[in-house]
Structure formats: C-alpha cells, structure tokens
Design goal:
Blueprint lengths: L1 H22 L2 H8 L4 H21 L6 H21 L1 H12 L3 H22 L7
Helix pairs in contact: 1-3, 1-6, 3-4
Length: 130
C-alpha cells in the first residue's frame, strides 16, 4: 500500500521538524511564519487534508488503526477550521507562540518528535509482514 510509505515519510518529516526546533527553538516561529500569508494558509489547509486522508486510509494496515483514524479526523477537522479561524486570528496565535520561552518551544518540539515517531512506527510493516 503506497499510502503507508507516504505516512512514514510524513512521520519522519514531523520528527525532523521537531529535532530542528529542539536545536533551534526559534525555528518553530520561522516555520510557522511560512503559513501566515493568504497563500500559506491555503497550503496549510491542503497539507492537513492530505495528511488526514493518508492517516485515515493507512489506518487499516497499521498497528494502531483507531489512533490513526482519530489523528486523521483531527487533521481533516483542523484543515476545515483554518479558514474559519482566519488569517488574522492565526497571526495573533502565532504572535502569542513566538512570545513563549525557548524551554516551552523545546517541549513542544518533543511532542512533535513523539507524534512523528508514533505515526511512522504505527504504519511501518512488522517483521512478519512483506
């Protein structure tokens, strides 16, 4: 199943972003700034939809199908919520996040690393699987 490998790649990407923020906490602020334009907002919507659908469709071959379906649904819900929240509110949320101390941003990065690792582990084939 091809979706499985895309989900593994997304999990690995989440982990890479998390490690980057762990080393460079302000990196999270820089990364978030990429999505704080009208085009960036719609890119974020599409990315969340794609990740959500991939998580949902690959849940059947995963170790944790229920968890991946819940995560997939959350990603899809957040994709639909972004335009409702709007760009101006998202900028205010990002400004609040930018004001957080580095240890807090590092803690967030650990959550991102954990989420990415969990997602990748969930869909990786088990040893007995081809």
């Amino acid at each position: 199943m091809m979706a499985r490998w895309f989900v593994v790649a997304w999990g690995a990407l989440f982990m890479c972003i998390g490690f980057w923020v762990l080393i460079q906490p302000r990196g999270l602020v820089e990364f978030a700034d990429l999505f704080l334009t009208s085009t960036g907002l719609w890119v974020a919507v599409v990315l969340r939809l794609v990740v959500g659908v991939l998580l949902w469709t690959s849940a059947g071959v995963s170790r944790t199908p229920r968890a991946l379906r819940v995560l997939g649904a959350l990603f899809v819900f957040s994709a639909f919520a972004l335009p409702v929240v709007g760009l101006e509110r998202m900028r205010r949320i990002a400004d609040w996040g930018a004001g957080l101390d580095d240890p807090v941003l590092r803690a967030v990065s650990l959550l991102v690393i954990g989420l990415g690792g969990f997602i990748a582990w969930s869909v990786l084939p088990q040893r007995s699987e081809p």
